[in-house]
Design brief:
Elements: E1 2-11, E2 14-24, E3 29-33, H1 40-48, E4 53-62, E5 65-66, H2 72-78, E6 80-83, E7 90-94, H3 95-109, H4 117-131, E8 141-142, H5 148-162, E9 166-170, H6 178-192, E10 198-202, E11 216-221, E12 224-229, H7 231-240, H8 242-246
Parallel strand pairs: 3-10, 3-11, 6-9, 9-10
Antiparallel strand pairs: 1-2, 1-4, 4-5, 7-8, 11-12
Helix pairs in contact: 2-3, 4-5, 5-6
C-alpha cells in the first residue's frame, strides 16, 4: 500500500530524514518510535504534503500513485489521513460543517455523489456514538474548548467519517488519560484494523500499543530506521531506552 525508498527531507536548510526506507502492506499496523528530533513527525508531515517540508531525494508510492507528485488535497482524496499530535482549533466553524465539507469534497474528487444533510448527520451520529463522544459536541466549533481527550475522540470521529485507506497518527496518545487512551485505541481498531486499510502510528511510548497491537515496530533515529521488530521491540524500548536500542 505504501512504499518509501531512500527518502530525504529537510526543513529550511536542516536535513531531517536521511535515507528512510519503509514498506507497509494493506491490513498492517506499523509503529514508529524514537527519541525527540529523530524525524518521526517530519515523516508524517512529508507524507501528508505539509508546506515547508522539502523532499530532496527518494520516492513514496501509495498504491499505484506517486505520492510526492500530488497536492495535499489530492493525497487526502486518494485515502491518506493525518492525525495531529495537537489538533487545531477552528473558531466559528462547527464540527458538523467542517466534516461534511471535508467528506463531500473528497467524494466529489472521486466522482462520488455528495451526502445530503440527513445522510451525513446519520453517519456523524453513528461515529460519535461509536467513539463515546456526545453528538451535541459536534455542533460546537472545531476543538474549541475541548479537553485533550475530547479533541482526540473528535479526531477519531473525523477519521471514522472520512474512512481513509491509510492513517498516519502522530502521537495520538499525547496527553490522554487511561479512559481516553482506551477509547482512542478502540476507535483505531474499529475504524482501521481491516484487510484493505493500514496505519502508521507515531509514538514515544508503549502504552498506546497495549490497545493497538502493531504488526511491526520500527526505531527511527537520526532520520533513518535503524531497527525493526515485532511488538516485543516496543517493550524492549520501554525497558532499555532508545540509546541502547539505536546504538
Amino acid at each position: 500500500m505504501l512504499k518509501i525508498e531512500n527518502l530525504h527531507a529537510s526543513v529550511g536548510d536542516k536535513p531531517i530524514l536521511k535515507g528512510l526506507d519503509l514498506a507497509i502492506n494493506a491490513g498492517e499496523i506499523h509503529a514508529i518510535m524514537g527519541p525527540n528530533g529523530a524525524g518521526k513527525s517530519t515523516l508524517g508531515y512529508v507524507l501528508a504534503g505539509r508546506p515547508g517540508y522539502d523532499v530532496t531525494a527518494g520516492s513514496v508510492n501509495f498504491g499505484e500513485l506517486s505520492l510526492l507528485d500530488m497536492a495535499p488535497h489530492e493525497r487526502a482524496a486518494a485515502g491518506l489521513f493525518l492525525g495531529f499530535q495537537y489538533p487545531v482549533e477552528i473558531p466559528g466553524v462547527s464540527n458538523l460543517q467542517f466534516l461534511r465539507e471535508a467528506l463531500n469534497a473528497q467524494r466529489r474528487a472521486r466522482d462520488e455523489a455528495p451526502l445530503s444533510g440527513a445522510e451525513f448527520l446519520k453517519l456523524a451520529r453513528a461515529q460519535a456514538d461509536a467513539l463515546g463522544l456526545d453528538a451535541e459536541m459536534l455542533k460546537r466549533p472545531v476543538n474549541v474548548g475541548f479537553s485533550g481527550g475530547e479533541k482526540k475522540r473528535a479526531e477519531m470521529v473525523q477519521m471514522g467519517i472520512i474512512a481513509p485507506k491509510f492513517a498516519i497518527l502522530d502521537e495520538t496518545d499525547s496527553g490522554l488519560d487511561i479512559d481516553a487512551l482506551r477509547a482512542v485505541g478502540a476507535g483505531i481498531n474499529t475504524i482501521m484494523r481491516k484487510p484493505d486499510k493500514a496505519v502508521l502510528l507515531i509514538t514515544h511510548y508503549q502504552r498506546l500499543l497495549d490497545y493497538v497491537r502493531p504488526d511491526f515496530v520500527h526505531v527511527l533515529a537520526d532520520g533513518r530506521i535503524v531497527r525493526t521488530g515485532g511488538p516485543e521491540l516496543a517493550l524492549e524500548l520501554e525497558r532499555e531506552g532508545y540509546g541502547a536500542i539505536a546504538a
